[in-house]
User: Fold this.
Amino acid sequence: MKPFGSHPGRWPTAALATAVALAPLSCGAPSDDAEDASDEIETSSRALGSQSPYGGAAWAAPGTIQAENFDNGGEGVAYHDVDSTNLGGAYRTGGVDLQSTTDVGGGVNVGWTKPGEWLEYTIDVTTNGTYAVSVRVASHGSGGTLHVEVDGADKTGPMKVPDTGGWQTWTTLTHSGVALSAGSHVLRLAFDAAGSNGYVGNVNKVILAGSAMPPPPSGTLLYNADFENGAWPSGTTFEQCASGRIKVYSSTTKPPGAPAPRRGTHAVAFTVLDTDVDPCTPTGNPRASAYKQGLLKPGQEVWEAWSLFVPSGFPSVPYFMMFQEDYGYPFHSTPPNGFYLQNFDGTGNRFFVTGDYDPVAKTAVRVWDAPVAYGVWHDWLVHRKLALDTSGFLEVWLDGQAVTFDNNSTHLGGQHTMLAGATSANFGVIHYRKAGMFPVANYPNGLTLYFDEVRAGTTRDVVEIPPP
Assistant:
């Protein structure tokens, strides 16, 4: 929880300054003193019949406004709520419903929002300009609509809150091109219509971004394995024949021969021995894999990214070695789109991608290839539509450059991108290869591929890995 009175600035009266001194500087639940301080400030404002910034100073724009820090002034002045009870019981008294949030940065969010409710914030725009207005939202089930006003003028039009998958699963809505003049203004966050769940949606913050502050990425991150907490995301499924075949490491504890992480302080090693086969994996070919089961659905457009490191001295691969696939039940054939490396023409290992999947023959063919560069991180970005018929498509970028497929286009359309009969597909990375290529007698420690920044989302913005 954000400390009460954490917004910098002067307090307007000595009495209010005393109230701030009573507030705790901790992240736990508000103490009675904190609630008393809040009551004193808000009561003082109501007694004066005035509206004033929460914390004493207007919120700077460009900048971030935490949703729970609406102005002092009370019901009908600084906010309107359909009831007089704080249903979440957090942070402040009054009718606005507040609860703790697990969004990035923690703190408090506004919840239980109903049509007709609104919140106001006094802002100080530093310079004339055009701004992007972003609202951080979450909803379990399809949410409703909201809009943002400045000085009584609607600046965004309706902003639709999507089904983010949970009340604490967050995404960002952004409306660009909002002209604001320098000086003091009142921003209103207005809740217009409820969704199928009966509410508009949870709100964590409003962000005003100008030319000096780019807007936050729009879209929803569906899966994020950046390993910065030393582990995989919750719900990840693993296939490995022994503990440690899939090993997250840090920049200070990396195994011999492992690269520094592509980004941040952690990455992961996938080590496979030729004996890593059935029954400890599902097939007679050695493999180790990590994936989010059932993440992808027919008709969905998804963006995916991962970084791959093939170490220097990596041997020639005479048959297939796969490192990424979107795959799942009914498991009856090769994946419609796979990402591989192989020395298939005798000139050295090459990356290649498969497509043009035939659901009757259950086969796919190479649609692009390029030489492997060793000892460096390769950043992959993929945009695809999941389809059981030919309405699917595939687009791929390698190290920031769009690849041109065999159809002489960067867009591979007309694609079956899911197995016939599939209702979902898994997303993840894999080290999967033909058995017998690297026998244990010659490779007693197996072969290792390295991954970092494995993610999937609804837009390019939320998954793309910035250039090194």
About this structure: The chain has two domains: 51-216, 222-463.
